[in-house]
Every structure is written in C-alpha cells, then in structure tokens.
Amino acid sequence: MPNRRKGTLAAALRLMGRALPLVLFGVVWQVVVSSGLINREFLPPPTAVAVAFADLFTGGDIAKNLFVTLFRAGAGLLIGAACGVWIGVMMARSQRFKDYVMPIVGGTYSLPKSALIPLFALWFGIGNVTAIAAVFLACLLPMIVNTYHGVMTTPKVLVWSAQALGTTRREVWSRVYLRNALPDIFTGLRIALGFSFVLAISAEMIASTNGIGKLIFMYGENGTYDYMFAAIACVVIVAFFADRGLLLITRRLLGWHESAVADHDRRRA
Amino acid sequence: MIAQGRESSRVPWRSVASVVGLLIVWEASARAHLTPVLFLPPVSEVVDQLWHSITDGTLARDLSLSLARAFSGLLLGTVAGVMVGLLMARNRVIEWLADPLVALGFPSPKIAFIPIFILWFGIASLSKILLVAFACIFPVVIGTYSAARSVNRLFLWSAMSLGSGRASLFLHVILPACYPRIFTTFRIAVPVGLITTFTAEMVAGGGGMGATLIYSQRFFESPTVFAYILVMLGVGLVLDTAMRKFQSHFLNWAEEAGV
Amino acid sequence: MLDVVRPKIDIRGVSKTYASERGPVLALRGTDLTVNEGEFVSIVGPSGCGKSTLLYVVGGFLEADGQVIIDGAPITGPGTDRGIVFQEYALFPWLTVRDNIGYGLERQGLPAIDCEKIIDRLIGVIGLAGFDNRFPRELSGGMKQRVAIARTLARDPAILLLDEPFGALDAQTREIMQDELLRIWLETRKTVLLVTHDVTEAVFLSNRICVMSARPGQIIEEFAVALDRERPREELVLSADFNTIRNEVWLSVRRQALAAGQQNAEPS
Predict the structure, then answer these.
(1) Which CATH superfamily, name and number, covers C1-81+199-268?
(2) From its phi and psi, is residue C189 left (phi > 0), alpha (psi between -120 and 50) or beta?
(3) Quick one: which of A116, A119, B155, B253 is 20 to 30 A from A156 by CA?
C-alpha cells in the first residue's frame, strides 16, 4: 500500500515538474506586461486573462459556444471516421472499387479542406451543416488511408492460420483484417481529431454565427482582448485534453500492440 | 481475399473513367438545370472563369501572394523548428523548457490564434507568414527531436571508433541521419502551411487566394469559387508530386540504411 | 488380400507459377509425393526451392496446378484437418495466450467448459502455466512457438503442417522444441509434414526425408529413416547410424544447393 502511494506521489511530482516551465512562462509574461515592455493593448497580463477565463465559465458564454463547436467537430469526426473505415475496407477488398475511388481520394488529399468552406457556405448557408460537412471531409481522408494500410499490411500467415483453424472467408474480415488494422485506425483517428478542431473553428470564423471560433473572432473585433486570449486558451486546453484522452483510450484498447510498450519506454528514456 | 486484382496496366482506365464520369455528370446536371446554377455552375463556365482569371492576371497575383506567404512561413517554421528540435535533443534544460509548450501547442488548432496574430501584426502578409511559421514549427520540432534522439547508436559507435569528436559526431552523423525524417516532416508541414495561409486569408482578408475565394462566395460568384478551389487542388498536387520526386531522388539512401 | 492402404496425403503433379516483377517464376514443377497416415515426413532442400510453397499448397492456402488429395478427396481450400504452424509464429497479437490457443475451439462452437479444459491441458503440455493472460508481445520466441503449436493441436487436426517452425529460434531453444515436437508426435502419432532447411533436425524427427531440387522444385530423392527414437537425444545424435543418414541427406541437399548456385550465377 505505501508503495503504491509513493508511486502516485512520484508521478504527480513528475507531472508538476514537467509543467513548471509553463509557470515560468506565465511569470515572464506577467513581468513583461507589468514593466511596460509590451503594451497592455497588445498583450493583456495573465491576471486579466485569468479573470476573463473565470468569468466566461461562470457566465456560460464559453460553455455554450464550446458545446456547439464540440458538437460540430464530434459529429463530423464520427461520421467521417465511420465512412472512412468503410471506404478503406472496401478499397482493400476490391481492386475495382479501389481503382474507381482512388483519384477522388488522392485528389482530395492535395486539396486544403478549408478551401471548401466557402463552397459549403454557398450550398448550405451559415451554420451547422457547413461546419460539419467541412469536418467530415477532412476526417475522411486520414481514416481511409490508415484503414486501408492497416488492412493491407495484415500478414498472410495470420489469415492462413485463422483459416486453418476454421474461420470462414466472411469472418476473416472482422476477426483478422479489422483487428489487425485497429492500431492504424486509431492513429488515423488521432489525426482526424486534430483536423476536426481545426476545420470546425475555421468554419466558425468564416461562416458561422456561433461557436468558439466565432467567439474568439468577435472578441478580437470588439477589442476585448483579455476575453479573446481566455477563449483561445480554452481551445488549446480542450484540444490538448481531447488528444490525451484519445491516447489513453487507445492505450487501453490496444494494450496488446507493441507500440504500447515502445511509447512507455520512450517516455522513460 | 485482399484485392489482388489484375495488375493495373500502365493506363489506369478505371481511375480515368471515374474522373471523366464525374465531370460528365457535373456538366450534364448543371446544363440541364437539375441543380441550381448557383450551386453547381457548368464545368465549361468554371473553366471559362479560370481562363479569365489567368489572362487578366488576378489569379497570378493572388496565387503568387499566397504561395509567397506560405513558403516564407514554411521556411521560417522549418528552420526554427529544426533548430529547436536539435537543441532539445542535445540539451536537457532546453528540452525541459520546451516540452510543455510543444505538448500543448501540437494538438491545438493554430487557426484559433489568427486574431492574436492580426492584433500584433496587422492584416497584411506579415501576420500570415508568422502564423504559418507558428503552425509548422510544432510538427517539425517533434519530428526533428525524435529523429535526433533515435539515431541508430551503431552509427554513432562506428563514427566514434573512427575518430569522431563530439562536434563532428553531431555534424557528420546525427544531422545527416536526420535529413530523411526532417524532410518527411517538412512534407507534412507543406499542406499545413497552405491550409493555414488560405484559411488566414479567408478569415482576415488582406489579399491572396483565400481572400478572393471568400469575396467570391459572398457575392455569389460560384464559377470563381470553383475555379479557385481547382487551382488550390492543382497546387497541392504539384507540390506533393515534386516533393515525392525529390525524396526518392535525393533521399533514397534512407530506406536501405535503416535510418 | 489386403487392400492397398490409401495414403493420407497424395500430392500429384503439383506445379505452381508465381508472377514477379521479372516475369512468371515456376516455383514447383510436377511435384509428386505421398504421405501415409502416422508418418513424419520432412522436406529439405536449398533455399528458394519451393518447399514452403508446396506446404502452402497442401494447406490449401495457395492454388496450383495438379492435385492434392487428402483421405481420398481433393482439397478445395484451407481446412481444419490440416493444422499449420509458421516460422513467424503467426499468433494473433490482440489475443492472450489462452484466447489464441482456444481460437480454433471457439470457431468450432464447443461449449465453454470443454474449451477451458482443453486449453488448460494444452497450456500444461507446453509448459506455460501462469502465462494464460499474457499477450504475444510479452513472450519470447520459443514461448510464442509453443503457443502456436498448442493452438494448432487444440483443434486436433489429423495432419500437421510445419513450415520451418524453429527457424527463428536460437540453437538451444530449437533443440528443446524439437524434443517437444518429437514427444508430441510419439504420443499422438499424427501425420506430419515438416519443411526445414536443417538436415539434422529432419533426421532427428522424421521417418522419411524428401529432398527437393533447386527451383523449379521437384522431389529428387527420398530417404527412409529407421532410428529408435526412444533413445535420449545425446545418444541418438552422436550415434553412428544417425550420422550416416545425416551425411547422406546432407550431401544430397548440398548437391541441389550447388546446382541452385550455378543457376543463379548464370545470366538468365
């Protein structure tokens, strides 16, 4: 029992040690502004930003808009991921399908998806659909590519072993190919998660009346920079925790994968 | 079980058919007014508009401005990123200082910082270049750091036994070993740079492809919208192909050497 | 009059061509081989001669010209009557040791209680008690191969196909695994087809050795191996009759290897 407590205490201390530079950064920031080195106009002091942050939370402004943004990002991500996996699997199953679909997939790879936001705004107007459509398209590609890769790199000997042990052709797909592709799929999911935030916020800044992207933009236009900084800080924190959260889930689900060992070792080194 | 179809012949017939088919459907439905012309202008009109933009110089102006911004930002971000990454790999203190900043910055949508950059640097090119640099620096730092840390120690030991001192080790073994990884990260950074530039222009204006794109949308000039999107697509394709060629030409030693 | 006993495995005129970047490659040419029930047959030969290919064809994983007849019926694909063990272990990385071993039983639809019993017994047989819930990435090469063998045995196939099963293991582990395999075969008397490049291993384990020619592969020579396997390894491997056979087989394989080398040296 004491060992475990020591373990978590050590871990907590380590975490604080790693976060310490942020505190230093905050101190430097405060000093730079207080001393007048940088104009308050351009860089509100961390104290003001913190006050704004707290106010936004209690006032509900951030919560409301954040929820909208998360909803848009999440919806686009889920639909995009589901479709992406399906398309990736289909491309692996059928050469014909792959040949027909490849140019479209390859083409959208080179296209900056946010360029489609004005087009979607033209088609769907200002609001949820535009944002979700943009997120959907952005998430589609990494999911397709990663799923395809994961399925195609399944070692033949795994498939053959499964067959010699009584797995039917149909079952091989869910029991071998998809399972083997899971690590790749989750890698794609992590990329798609990042994209979902970027596209949702971009869409909000360009073509929306709400959402945290719009909120940030509005604060900027109104000149309430401490609130603007606070909202941006909020986005950064949420994105960070979303990413970490996904990593944690991945590690849980894919504990069997070698990379789980590798990651752990790398941190220690 | 897995697609092992006929060897795809030299000419990818199905792929071509797919694209051509799409274009035909597009043109037909636009002409037949199956879809409102506003939403889906006929291909011919888009091409027409594209031609106009080329001949009257607007496309050249916008594209060169956007690309200039994107590349300046990319260069800045890559150089700074490589330096920071290498420094982090060499110096524990710098690594400790930079680690939380990189960890926070990497997953965050850099786009959210546009208003800060506009506040500090205005709506002209400078803010966009710096934003692009800001967006690109994170993947480059991480990639460079990871590459520098994981240089195969067998290379290091060989060099040391052949008389390499610390500096030489760094310049002649670690750095070259990092090139492929750095280039790969650069390849990833390029689309990031382009997206950031276009989005920043869409949000803040100030000229460039993105600005024109959003104005066209606001004034419902859909052929221009489509034309510009196609150009962006083309630019992305060209750049990616060029980089792939470069990589296979100059950096193909990386694959066999196990770097 | 006694009926001629039908061979367990009857390989007739199997030919296999691969497509490769340099054009079609003939891997096997008209290979014939019969294996009787309860026999332990090894196929040896120079690298690249096609012995693994032949095994995959018998397993039903590759299509080929010619016929493979098992128990009088031609095969149509992979089957649970032919268990396979690969050099790369091919364990499902997402399943624990237990679940890997029990995979075939689960596919069979056996009730859980019976599955558990069989798995427990097999884990005991391979000596991995206590490792039930480990994942393959946590196991050493030798342990992985034991699990792979247990997984194949769980389904109790009549035929065992082994493709260089110990090739990836170090010398000591290899010998231990060979002892294990021999013990299992002596107990169960299954029909075994083993592909290996290690002549000593072949002589140690099998009662018949087939030497394959260089590519395109054909069975060139056969050796009957009549050794008393109840003897301990130390005695057996150092004995005169063991070495006589080993030397003969080795020479035969050597000849094929040299022929293959010449083949590669000549401009094609």
Answers:
(1) P-loop containing nucleotide triphosphate hydrolases (3.40.50.300)
(2) left
(3) B253
